[in-house]
Structure formats: C-alpha cells, structure tokens
Write the structure tokens for this entry.
Amino acid sequence: MFVVWRFSARKARRAADAARAGARVVSLAGRVLFTGAAFVGVQWLVITHPGNPTLLLVVLAVPDLIAAHVLIRALTVTSLDTSPRGGGRR
C-alpha cells in the first residue's frame, strides 16, 4: 500500500510540475504580446502625429535597445555550471 501511495504522489507531483511549466509559457507569451502591442501603439501615435524629431528618434530607438539587451543576455554564457566531484547532494 505504501508503494502505491508513493507512486501516486510522484505522478501527481509530475503532473503539477508540467502544469506549472505550461502556465509559465502562456504567461510569458501574454506578457510579450502585451509589451509588443504597447510599443507598437506608442510608436504609431508618435509617427502619425509628427512634430518632434527627437521624440520620434527616442520612441523608435528605445525598443531596439531593449531587444538588443535581451538578445545579448540570452545569447551570452555567463557561468559554467559544473558538478563537484563525487556527484552527491550536500
């Protein structure tokens, strides 16, 4: 009976972990879409109402700088994760 209980607990934990991972992906996609829509909306407003070239330059440059920062952070290796000798938990 203990083995059956242990098996069902592990199965439930795996299902919960999978659900959390799926929710994280959906949440991330929602935030990306919302932020992208906000950037496009602000850019559209500034482009359709011309008058200040400095504001136009800033509005077009800031999203590019943010995207460049995110890409550099994502593509740069900052640490080398190695396991200690012995391989056990401490």
Remarks:
- The chain has a mean pLDDT of 77.
